[in-house]
Amino acid sequence: MKTDMTIKEQTKLMKLESSKMAAMSLEVRNNALKAVADELIAKKEEIIRANEEDLKKAEEDGLQKSVLKRLKFNEEKINGVVEGINDLINLTDPLGKVQMKRELDEGLLLIRESCPIGVIGVIFESRPDAMVQISTLCIKSGNCAILKGGSEAMNTNRVVFNIIYNAAVNAGLPKNCMMQIEAREDITAILDCHESVDLLIPRGSNAFVQYIMSNTKIPVMGHADGICHIYADKDADIEKAVKIIIDSKTQYTAVCNATETLLVHEDILEKLMPVLNEAFKTKNVEVRGTQKIRNIIDCEQATEEDFATEYLDLIISVKSVNNIDEAIEHINRYGSHHTDCIITEDDKAAEYFMQNVDSAGVYKNCSTRFADGYRYGFGAEVGISTGKLHARGPVGLEGLCTYKYKLYGDGHIVDDYAAGRKKFHFKDEQI
Amino acid sequence: MKTDMTIKEQTKLMKLESSKMAAMSLEVRNNALKAVADELIAKKEEIIRANEEDLKKAEEDGLQKSVLKRLKFNEEKINGVVEGINDLINLTDPLGKVQMKRELDEGLLLIRESCPIGVIGVIFESRPDAMVQISTLCIKSGNCAILKGGSEAMNTNRVVFNIIYNAAVNAGLPKNCMMQIEAREDITAILDCHESVDLLIPRGSNAFVQYIMSNTKIPVMGHADGICHIYADKDADIEKAVKIIIDSKTQYTAVCNATETLLVHEDILEKLMPVLNEAFKTKNVEVRGTQKIRNIIDCEQATEEDFATEYLDLIISVKSVNNIDEAIEHINRYGSHHTDCIITEDDKAAEYFMQNVDSAGVYKNCSTRFADGYRYGFGAEVGISTGKLHARGPVGLEGLCTYKYKLYGDGHIVDDYAAGRKKFHFKDEQI
């Protein structure tokens, strides 16, 4: 795209071209994806060189090892994202899906059909694979995309974006189908573009997502916090409980679907806590418990604040509850409506919990870490939504689409119905 | 509900009870609706008396006839809303609908199921029937509701709300399932309740909806403007065109789905405009046209501002366009993404228009006035959304629902998949 234009002008152009992008056939969109995959492989070395620059700079800046690990974009990771693109090509078209077909009256046919949202801005962290995943999800779903990656990956992102952009446009996508922004001021400029940008998806820290939400009229899809719970019911299988709790807490701590709080039915405290505590010790998990927990195991006192904290670390708060209702109330009050799990062998208790916990994911006997677009079979995800509007939970292709109503008539007017000369008959066709 | 609590305390209580409301069986919800219908009939006279007070006050205040007409809630209108409740009882349950059923791996089953949004605040105009329609839609969809009607209908609304509330709670719905607010300050208080209120639906003037959107973190569903277009294509049938344009413009002018701008392909200007102008004259429609229009008929000059104006009156702006692309571009630029129609006998042109116009409703050969929940067969509507997130177009029961993911495992942990000991197999079950 021309760079002598302001961000606002560029997004306006994009908005105008978004209906062309929406009209691209599945064949053109898949060909573009194929071209992107081919070019990423062909230009692998160029990407790796750029990534090495970013890594060098990051090391010089003394960034944490975990950041360096995520920043690294080597041959293996490139092959990984290309595999992801091939999976995406094989997914069915999310566009033009007929969701409803209803004859309102003789010759008056209403059809609801899926279509792209339009122009989507995504702000994401310093993982170069995120640039590939998000841009290709937008291509497959016919959306124009504004992409802002983390500044630590600047060189890599620039090279990767150019490869994707050129491959996509050469394959026939509109010139303004995507754009990259790099500067922080550009984010501020985007926040003001509510007339051209249909949706913002910020990924990153809680504070950052809240900042975005408070400073724009553009609808925002994202999650503010990930305070996930496990409730070990009185009929929990202790062995399963330990296995699931350890996985949910320790398999990867720095993510939103890791468990932060454990609620234990008081009837099983003595059976569960000692053995669980041994498992926590081998994984270096710090436990903060309420008094009844501390009566059984040696641990720090949990405060009110602990239950409202997303640790993203090897720390877990543990509370004893008298019954399932107390667990549900605690989760609905302190949780972030992300993902919460019950461990029980009692199916009725499980259904009751899953009905009453007000979260995007309600689980029975499995790790909260399953809350993820890839693990749900969505191909990839652009984020996880804890809001209730539009998309909830992991957001894949479907969450990047909306729908429109098409009404086909033959001179039909409302006055005929208002005056009683005609009547609607509402016949739904099977779809 | 107790009245010695602040609005914030009341909405918090409502939020806590919203999971109970969500768990109400279809039978209990339908029984509550039946009880509401019965009580409205039984207490008809009490309602009419209260309404007469409102009407008297409105007359004294010199309110317009059209306002008085909408404010009036007589036996006929009461019977009408009761009929609407009976239709609503017969609609299938919007809750617990399985939208996806996928086995991720042996014994690991993912189910996506519809559920209520939670706590919804609706601010609506001075039509007492709106109070009944909105509250009953919320009951059927298992949502807790905060209801604020127009102040002109205060006495009627108070009586009607009490009848509905008592009938609903006596039928078994939770005590905090709905509440009425009356004062303007109470709206301000609600805007600050983003921790307990999941969705706001403001109905009313453009300025009012914009005010709400700019002053809350709560997601807002509503439309800011209704600038609907009709494009008369070069292959339009003139007779149909006149009939549809007159209906769209004049059948009811004070509503968002009335047409405000007509775009005419230059090839049919001479055929269409003179006969259309005669029809406009009989309906007292004022025409504001571009120069090419004024070369054919006698009318005012249309300005840039006209094309961005929602008249809600017997005024129409008319523009000549060179081709269908110019029409589409005009609509996407000046329109409000509400409802836009093409008049043509050329199916390909119709499909092209309907694909490329970025609106909630894209119509062929029928009046824009059809954009309405009742006419779409939704029973009733809580509003029409011109946003693209969540619900688009007329919003009925489905738009008041979200979904949750239920994941059933038997000790499944993510580490088994991360380490390659197990693999997902993603088998979708037909639903």
Summarize this entry quickly.
The structure is a homodimer of 431-residue chains. Chain A is an alpha/beta fold and 431 residues long. The first copy, chain A, is built from 16 helices and 17 strands.
Q: What secondary-structure arrangement, pairings included, does this model have?
A:
The structure is a homodimer of 431-residue chains.
Chain A: H1 7-22, H2 26-42, H3 44-60, H4 65-71, H5 75-90, E1 98-105, E2 108-116, E3 119-123, H6 128-140, E4 144-148, H7 154-170, E5 178-180, H8 184-191, E6 199-202, H9 206-214, E7 228-232, H10 238-250, E8 259-265, H11 269-282, E9 286-289, H12 291-294, E10 300-301, H13 304-307, E11 315-321, H14 324-334, E12 339-343, H15 347-356, E13 361-366, E14 383-385, E15 393-395, E16 401-412, H16 415-418, E17 427-428
Parallel strand pairs in A: 3-4, 3-6, 4-5, 7-8, 7-12, 8-11, 9-10, 9-11, 12-13
Antiparallel strand pairs in A: 1-2, 1-17, 2-16, 14-15
Helix pairs in contact in A: 2-5, 2-7, 3-7, 5-6, 6-7, 10-11
What features would you describe in this structure?
By secondary structure, chain A is an alpha/beta fold. The first copy, chain A, folds into 2 domains: 7-222 and 387-403, Aldehyde Dehydrogenase, Chain A, domain 1 (3-Layer(aba) Sandwich); 228-370, 3-Layer(aba) Sandwich (Aldehyde Dehydrogenase, Chain A, domain 2), CATH 3.40.309. In chain A, 42% of the residues lie in helices and 21% in strands. Chain A is built from 16 helices and 17 strands. The first copy, chain A, has helices at 7-22, 26-42, 44-60, 65-71, 75-90, 128-140, 154-170, 184-191, 206-214, 238-250, 269-282, 291-294, 304-307, 324-334, 347-356, 415-418, and strands at residues 98-105, 108-116, 119-123, 144-148, 178-180, 199-202, 228-232, 259-265, 286-289, 300-301, 315-321, 339-343, 361-366, 383-385, 393-395, 401-412, 427-428. In chain A, the strands form 4 sheets. Chain A has a 7-stranded parallel β-sheet with strand order 10-9-11-8-7-12-13, with helices on both faces. The first copy, chain A, has a 4-stranded antiparallel β-sheet with strand order 16-2-1-17, with no helix packed on it. The longest helix of chain A has 17 residues, at 26-42. The model of chain A has no long low-confidence stretch (mean pLDDT 94). At the A-B interface, α1, α10, α14, α15 and β13 of A face α1, α10, α14, α15 and β13 of B.
